[in-house]
Amino acid sequence: MPPSTPSESSAPSPTYSDVSLRVNGETYALPVDHRTTLLDALRERLDLTGTKKGCDHGQCGACTVLVDGRRSLACLQFAVAAQGREVTTIEGVADGDRLHPVQQAFLDLDGYQCGYCTPGQICSALGVIEEHAAGWPSAVTADLRPEAGPAPLDADEIRERMSGNLCRCGAYASIVEAVARAAAPDAGGPRAGACGTEVTA
């Protein structure tokens, strides 16, 4: 095969794109293969290793991040699809050295054991609290009428809403308690959500 001509070698690759990712309030420009998942871009390209790779099939929830404030499985989303979106990983949840109320509740109530699934659990819990505050029902919500308002965020609601996040250590009871405490009105008042929105439980 003859060597590539200068014009051929300088042509854009059909399998790569230059993307601009907004992650935890910082903008990163990087070329990525179109097949690169958001999870691999975060871990391998941006060194944000708090987001964990568990099953790599969207079944365990260890890679949960927030995209525009909503829960997303980073292993199932292409990095190129995240351009122009606001991505929040576990590294962007705390306010400097001050833990987010969800993080503090997990710490206080032992909502973790080995800790591998904890970043995804916390990001998912943030999404759960925002979804509940917005009035989104779950599969166990009994009264779906709009005038009924949000169902109480009780243990059944929390278990159902967090069911996509697996904990192989079995810390589920403490995780439910931690989410309930963080969602309580006296957990610190309105909390800044992933995109800076005020969240009330």
Write up this protein.
This protein is about 25% helix and about 15% strand. It has about 200 residues and is α+β, with helices and mostly antiparallel strands. Helix 3 crosses helix 6 (about 170-185). The model is unreliable at about 1-10 and about 190-200 (pLDDT under 50).
Task: Give a brief rundown of this model.
With 201 residues, this protein is α+β, with helices and mostly antiparallel strands. The protein has 6 helices and 7 strands. Mean pLDDT is 89; it is low at 1-8 and 189-201.
List key phrases describing it.
27% helix; 5-stranded mixed beta sheet; alpha+beta
Topology at a glance:
Layout: H1 6-9, E1 16-23, E2 26-33, H2 38-45, E3 64-67, E4 70-73, E5 86-88, H3 101-108, H4 118-133, H5 155-161, H6 172-183, E6 191-192, E7 198-199
* Oligomeric state of the chains present here: single chain
Query: Biggest sheet: strands, sense, closure?
Result: 5 strands, mixed
Shape summary: globular
Number of helices, counting only DSSP H or I runs of 4 residues or more: 6
- How large, in whole angstroms, is the Cα Rg? 19 Å
Q: How widely separated are the two ends?
A: 65 Å
- For the residues shown, what is the average pLDDT? 89
Sheet/helix structural class: alpha+beta
- What share of the residues lie within helices? 25-40%
Strand content: 15-25%
- Return the string of H and E elements: HEEHEEEHHHHEE
Number of strands: 7
Instruction: Please mark out the parts with pLDDT under 50 across 5 or more consecutive residues, or reply none.
Output: 1-8, 189-201
- Side-by-side strand order of the widest sheet: 2-1-5-3-4
